[in-house]
Write a structure and sequence with these properties.
This protein has 622 residues and is α/β, with parallel strands linked by helices. The chain has 3 domains: 105 residues, no CATH class; 284 residues, Rossmann fold; 201 residues, Alpha/Beta hydrolase fold, catalytic domain (Rossmann fold). The chain is built from 21 helices and 14 strands. Strands 3-4-6-8-7-9-10-11-12-13-14 form an 11-stranded mixed β-sheet, sandwiched between helices. A hairpin with a 2-residue loop joins strand 1 and strand 2. Helix 3 packs antiparallel against helix 4. It starts with a helix and ends with a helix. The N terminus is likely disordered.
Length: 622
Amino acid sequence: MALFVICFHSKEDLDYKIRVFEEYFKGFSPAFICSAFQPEKRFLIICFLLCLATNLIMYFILRRRKNMKIFKLTALLLAAFMGFSMVKTTSFAEEAKAEAATEAEEFTGLGVVHTAFGDVEGILGTREKVTVFKGVPYAAPPVGDLRWAEPVDPEPWEGVLACDTYAPAAMQPNYTINSMVPGSNFYPAGRPPMSEDCLYLNITTPAVSADEKLPVMIWFHGGGLSHGYSWQVPFEGEDLASEGVIVVTVGHRLNIMGYLCLPQLTAVGSCGNYGLMDCIKSVEWVYDNIAAFGGDPEKIMVFGQSGGGVKVAAAVAAPQTQGKIAAFAAQSAFSLFGGAGEDAGLTTLEQNEQAGLAFLDAIGVSRDATLEELRAIPIEKMYDPSIGYANASGVNVIDGKYVTQNYSDFFLGEGNLDGIAMMAGYVFPERGTYGAETPEELYDMIRAEFGDELFEKYDIANTVPITKSNLTYMNYKLKQDVSLDEIRLYAKVKAERNEDSPSYIYSFGRVTPDKDLGWHSGELWYLFNNMGYSFEGLDDSWQPKWEVYDYMVGDLTAAYWSNFAGTGDPNAPGLAFWPEANAEEQPYQYIDVVSTSYDVTPFDEMVMEYYANRYGIYEEAE
């Protein structure tokens, strides 16, 4: 314990080690150490105990030597020290209680906030000193004539709107494929209430006044463009907001309600992309109103995972958000070269219209139905379970207004990301495995994927050691590296073609205690750092058995992301250093209990050159 406490390098490091010590020894360490003392007071108490232990050791040594004069003197010193420690401990305990009571009395939240459309009032956080505004309307309900239409401003309201309850989730099928059952990985709270009236956001702010200018983190949930909702249990924002940021989670239209495209809709000026329009509208609302919640509109970060990462990329590229986003994080999603290719997963207007007509066929509605008839279709008819999951999925379309070009064209464009910081990466090993059964087979698979010329140029057979003992690991690692190398190549190009445009790449390594391997979405508990709590309507029996190391990684991950939101750089004193990926170097950070960075290897250079050649990255610049 002495070494644990004494070996620190800074005040931040000291406080971090003390918190880890407390978490680890909860339940069997002295209560006055693991209680609400301030860090410096806890440290003094630990020092008292260490000195006490030292005196006891001296006592026994001197007793064995039978030096009674020194023995008596040591005994007197020991008694004095014990008395002093007891007095100081009692004093500290009383001070801590008084300070805690004072702080509890002082924090009354942000109070009533004035937005452009009316006043809102939130509720105090249950664990942290934050104010939570649930169900704040950022657009009018998309019903009636606004079904399958661009979002418009909400109607102003009189009085104070009590924002104490989450709004319903967007309409989505009751698919068993997505495990909307209590205790599941993605939806541990089960199936939420749903409604077409879903354009609301939730704001968690630690501010106590409107002039604090805190960084703002806007979260777009995953679930493709088809399912999910803004207040899923892992996204609860109190702990992330306690890092000194404002967390905004956004509800928006999904699947058929968010992306249906039909000739009848094209004729009135909009077709598909309604869910994307909602995301863009939420960014505009936050930019215009977040200062009243203590936020800085010039420090807005958008972030999302999986389908949320797709929404992030689309929002960053949208003409309507230019100048409003300072940073973005695309988690388990950012791919311009590999799976997405030239069209980045977009469809044309004609393709999407044909998909929409096929949907009308599936639900028994005439392809010639008028717009009024379409908007009058009962919602239950569109979500008949017999339709199936595929007909209710969503995809963005190049519409000329919200999506004007392929995403790859935007992100590779000169100067498009000037002053915008990027974070991107994957959970290890969510990208899968090569599945080779022998080292020779894995070498052959790599050669087949990237070609003889590059394989020999980078001497992969010698520079990438694959053996029987590391085969399973290398199957996973090299598959993951291929995806990370797409991001590495982009970070290099981004730095070359933009000014003041840093990038940070990660591989998230912590495995939740209930799994053998990392999994798609597994980092979200750590990012929002809300492990181990009992949420409304749920006890903690369904949660993994979190360990002290999970809490350590949660603290680290939340700090990285919140720092990035504030400065475009995840680093801060006391954290493992995360190097930037730029034109010269493209390292990535492996995030776990022990976090470290990995530089580019010959294998990575091979993959990066492969993608650069395949998509003519540098030919385009010539």
